[in-house]
Every structure is written in structure tokens, then in C-alpha cells.
Amino acid sequence: MSEVTAVPLRPIAKGSLVKLWAGVAIVIAAGVGTAYYGTRSQVAMAQTPEDFMKSNGSHSGVVTTVSGLQYQVLKEGSGPRPGPNDIVLVDYDGKLVNGETFDSSAKQGGPAPLPVSGGMIPGWSEGMQLMQQGAKYRFWMPPQLAFGERGAGGKIPPNAVTIFDVTLIAIAPPQAAGMGGMGGAHGGM
Hints:
By secondary structure, the protein is α+β, with helices and mostly antiparallel strands. The chain contains three helices and seven strands; from the N terminus they run H-H-E-E-E-E-E-H-E-E. Strands 1, 2, 3, 4, 5, 6 and 7 form a seven-stranded antiparallel beta sheet that branches.
């Protein structure tokens, strides 16, 4: 038979219990944060476009135009504003509310020359004319200003809110055209 030798337990050092509970609290907070970020895209996609736009419009720095276009200035520009007949050279990233990118100038090979109007979605035309050269804006477009009831290209579902981060690099007059638009040679939307 074996003998068990009693090992005296040392008392817990002062402050260790606080550290233990702080560690437990951090683990719980990390779990809650992971759960939130893991489901927020599904929650956003489950909202109606009207509910999403209403909620988004209440955030600080978001401006809603009369048409329903929402934008936020990420970086001010200092140059001229494009007109409806101009061509703009832009870097853009188009996403759905769940964060999924459906198109970007980077995927297309770099900055894209696109018309302000003429074959473009209404939200794009309106938004470009708000920007000054050198600016970076984020646009939230309700379905009626984006791709509407039909969606686009299998990547954008019907009645989807679309989000564009756009940097306006340069403005060219219309005669520099011959460029594709969203849905054309470059944009793929």
C-alpha cells in the first residue's frame, strides 16, 4: 500500500484572484466579440434595405441626400468637381452590406477611367459629382440608386444595398472617353 504524502498548499498571493477573474472576463468578452463579428454580416443581409439605410444614416458623419444616397467623407479633396459629362479616373471597391466585394478597380488592374453618367447607376452619377479631385468617399446606395430589383451579374442580389469606397484621382473631359462603365469593359457591374 502506498502512502500519500500531504503537500501543503500555499495561499494564493494577494491580487492573483483579481488577475484570474480579469482573465476570465477577457475570455468572455473575446467570445462575445467573435460571435458578434461572425454574425453581423448575416444580420446586415437580413435587414430590409430601408431598415439598413435608416440605421446607417444615423451614424456620425453619414450624410443622406434627397435621393436617398448616403455618403461619408473619408478624405477631403481640393480639386475641381466632375460634371455629368466628364470621365473620372478612380480607385473603387464595391461591396455588399455583408462585406463581400463584388468588384474593385484593383481586381480590374488598377485605377479605372469611368464616365460620371451615361450607362452608370444613378447613385454613382450623383456621388461622383459630390467629390472633389483627390477626395475619398464611402457611398451607400439603396437599390433604387444601384442595381434595383434585378441585381447584377449573379454577384449582386436583387434589391441589394451596395457600398462603394471611391478615391477620385483625376477628371478628364468627355472627349477622353471611349471608356467602359460599370457593366462595361472595366466595371463588370
